């Protein structure tokens, strides 16, 4: 059962009370649904995926140490994670109201600022590793 298919009469706590392997599989399904939704509805997520598709293989091709490679890949994945969280914030704010409100703007601006910092982190880590003297 996907979150979008829940009717108002169902109790969300009943869904959370499931345990064991069933819960793990349900959680994996929800996670995949979230990735699918981000890919379909979020242009910024698709752009970051393209960046990741270029940078992650490049990190494995470059002659860097294992720790440097882990950092290079990690910051790219972190930017994808931040974009997912930013998109979730935007969806919740829009779900509450499309009315312009200072707190809605602040929430969206804070999410955007987090993503900007994640992109600066990619730039900084990659630059420091690639352009620092050996």
Automatic annotation (TrEMBL):
Principal subcellular localization: membrane
Keywords from the UniProt entry: ATP-binding, Cell inner membrane, Cell membrane, Kinase, Lipid biosynthesis, Lipid metabolism, Magnesium, Membrane, Metal-binding, Nucleotide-binding, Phospholipid biosynthesis, Phospholipid metabolism, Transferase, Transmembrane, Transmembrane helix
Any Pfam family matching the protein: DAGK_prokar
Residue sites binding substrate per the record: 23, 61-64, 69, 83, 112
Record has Translocase as a keyword: no
UniProt keyword Cell membrane, yes or no: yes
Residues bound to ATP: 23, 30, 42, 90, 99-101, 108-109
Membrane topology note: Multi-pass membrane protein
PROSITE patterns the UniProt entry points to: DAGK_PROKAR
EC number: 2.7.1.107
Domain of life: Bacteria
CDD domains, per the entry: DAGK_IM (cd14264)
Places the protein is found: Cell inner membrane
Catalyzed reactions per annotation: a 1,2-diacyl-sn-glycerol + ATP = a 1,2-diacyl-sn-glycero-3-phosphate + ADP + H(+)
Residues that bind a divalent metal cation: 42, 90
Cofactor: binding comment: Mn(2+), Zn(2+), Cd(2+) and Co(2+) support activity to lesser extents.
Gene Ontology terms describing biological process: phosphatidic acid biosynthetic process
EC main group: transferase
Role description: Catalyzes the ATP-dependent phosphorylation of sn-l,2-diacylglycerol (DAG) to phosphatidic acid. Involved in the recycling of diacylglycerol produced as a by-product during membrane-derived oligosaccharide (MDO) biosynthesis.
Protein name: Diacylglycerol kinase
